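Practice set, problem 2.
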Amino acid sequence: MANDIALPRISKRGDDDRPAGTTVPPHAYFVVSAVFHYLGPSFVVLLFARVQVLGVAWLRIASAALILGLWTARASVRRA
């Protein structure tokens, strides 16, 4: 009876619907995150000269929502 247990199939990288080599390597997410962590605050400092603090906060929230919306919409189109 112990041999009747079905083990999940472990897929190799590129073994799913996408061709091999089309996945994003994990370190790419780290690099993109690091770039945005440095560029974001530098643009905010420049914006403080023209926009008040509350306006900068809303701009950051709106731009993050826009980027997240575009990213998830692209991912859902890719899955369909």
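Problem 2, part (b): a different protein.
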Amino acid sequence: MTKKVSRREFLRLSTAAGVGAMLAACGTKAPGPAKPAASTGATAAPTTAPSGGGAPTEVRYAQFTAPIWEPHIQKYVDEHNKRQSKYKCKFEPAPWGTYWPNVQTSLASGNPADVTLLVHFNMDKYVHDGACAPLDDFVKKDNFDLSVFYPSYVKHVTMGGKYYGIGWSIDSSAVFWNKDLFEKMEVEAPPLGGNWDWQGYVDTAKKITSLKSDGSFDTVGTTLWLNMNCDLPVDALYSNGGDQINAEAGFTKTLIGEAKAREAIKWAMNLGLTEKVAQASNPEHSNPWIEQWNSGRYGLHWGFANNMANFAEAPFKFDVVPIPVSPSTKVRKSTSNPNTFTMMAKAKNKEGAWDFLKWLASEDDNAPPAVWARDIHSLSPVKSVNQKFWMKQWAEEKGFERQVIFDSFNDHWRYPHFPAYADWYIPLGEELSMVFQGKDADQAIEDAVKRGDQILAENPTPQGWVAA
């Protein structure tokens, strides 16, 4: 019997896995392609014979993972193999650091796994390079209902008018607030209905902030990380009507210095600089908010809903409210951070790959979306599964407003899809974070734009590239 992952165990795992998912692919030398291992794990005998009376054909399924996930994944792989007899799926796990070199090596050798997990910041490059097979013909043939997914997810995996993926995970933004700290400091709760703007966020954070006699923080209004891939600064940028890059004109210019984007980024910077309600994080410290929030000293955290897996063991009560709207546009836009299973163009068994991809999107209680939402506490792109399973028991026990998270899927901004994205966004955050080492805010933005434009010039997006 597979052991259910405790929230404390998942905290340890997702901290490591999350660091990887926020960074560019590992640059270590890729090892040679591994010899296919013998299939492991007992499965029930097929209930019907394969067509033609032969053995089931193999479907290879590759995913970055960690040991604590693997029994859960193997369980739903075995379940798939029990439910039909035509194909036998073989799970090929690898840790984050070796997974991406393995993917590259397998593609170079012409022997990729049939189904391969990609992430939001590199999927478009693989699609452009011809590594991924569009799924439109399969969707049409089986009349597959894409409405089981959130519309924002479908948009993310549609490129050049073609559909490329079946979802593993999706995310959204919310504001977490520390109920115990608010009560202790007699501060009114943030508005559950989301009737607040950036100034309201600052005003609330100020009421929570307190200093020690030496001038250092005792309690801190909000976490802050100037990461340009997700969370507060980018949500604010899109909410304010800004953009990161000139997608309509060939992905040649970084736009975070334009007026609307600059206003949003400077507002985020000033949470630490002028408003003094945030303790800035080192840009090299991925996922700093986990230890910050769990310390109990922070009143607000604007970040991923999937932080719940990391925060559920926090020794204090907390809840979520919608992120604030831009005061200029009265709009809120949230990150999505989707990760996706794809069929590889050189898959040896495309029919079998499609059959397994459908299982990866199934609403069945034993299918992968339910396993991830129920047992590993990860939000699924499959709408009904989140409603049924994601953090449900915990939320009922703690009085946590899950619906805030589900409603936020209607407000997603869409990641810029271009091949150099992973090489481009990390340096932007590094440059912007220099304001917390004394650099002028406008100069930091200008330097970020220059560095971003240099990366775009060195890694030009191919002419005719169409992301959506």
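Answer key, part (b): Residues 1-52 have pLDDT under 50 and may be disordered. The two ends are 43 Å apart (CA to CA).
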